[in-house]
Amino acid sequence: MNIINNKSALTQCKSAIEVSHVNFAYSKESTPILNIEKWQVSRGEHVFLSGPSGSGKSTLLNLLCGTLTPTAGSIALLGQPFSSLSNRQRDKFRARNIGVVFQQFNLIPYLSVAQNISAAAYFSGKGNSSQKVLANTCELLDRLQLPSHVLHAKADALSIGQQQRVAIARALINSPQLLIVDEPTSALDADARDSFMALLKEVASDSTMIFVSHDNAMERYFDRHFRISELSLPSTTQPPHAVKHTSKPKQESL
Ligand SMILES: Nc1ncnc2c1ncn2[C@@H]1O[C@H](COP(=O)(O)OP(=O)(O)OP(=O)(O)O)[C@@H](O)[C@H]1O
């Protein structure tokens, strides 16, 4: 059975992420960057992942996206183990189910906002008509409090704050089950960060979210906080239950 097209199997699984005995090194000669015995994130959780620069946060996000492959161990998203997918199937799975907001936004500078977002819709293979994609884009831009004329502006003509919101719209255009957000608030002052986080939580309320930052003050916006130093331990000292976290009731919105 090709589970990638089996929507009910993906919908029934209660875990958004299951990481099991994962070890990752960039080369055979180098020391492993990550060594995670068990990590599980439930559907709908908004999770904060923190750690200092160089601790492996982006590496873990790339493993979750399937753009890196573990040296050992397994990763399953929405009940789908990556190891059972070909590279092509994994790309398709990622485009359909995962939205990513990159640290540097990664918008295509010479394309308009509408083109940047519709490209993401096209690559998902979901087959929505261009009219439907445009209508969804306009709705998202409106929810993200961007003026309608932004739609036809080139991405590199936008302010950093506007680019950030367009990057979120692009990540959400396919209604992803999992939203991955890599350190998007580092350039913002405290007030801008608060309003950005309120918006992000609101527009991502139907998705599981993994949000990465080195700034522990961001913890208050999330259901659970994982420190990478606790998640990933040297193999010689790894206890049976390696994952520690702080937990609090899920907030519906801010
Ligand atoms: N392509 C690569 N090849 C080899 N080593 C890499 C590669 N990418 C990252 N690293 C190394 O892996 C380690 C973890 O890097 P990573 O980018 O995951 O950290 P990070 O916690 O996201 O850092 P930052 O907060 O600065 O973005 C670092 O020592 C880095 O030098």
UniProtKB/TrEMBL annotation:
Residues 233-254 are annotated as: Disordered. GO terms for cellular component: plasma membrane. SMART domains: AAA. SUPFAM superfamilies: P-loop containing nucleoside triphosphate hydrolases. It comes from the Bacteria. GO terms for molecular function: ATP binding; ATP hydrolysis activity; transmembrane transporter activity. Residues 17-254 form the ABC transporter domain. Keywords: ATP-binding, Nucleotide-binding, Transport. InterPro entries: AAA+_ATPase, ABC_transporter-like_ATP-bd, ABC_transpr_LolD-like, MacB-like_ATP-bd, P-loop_NTPase. This is ABC transporter ATP-binding protein.
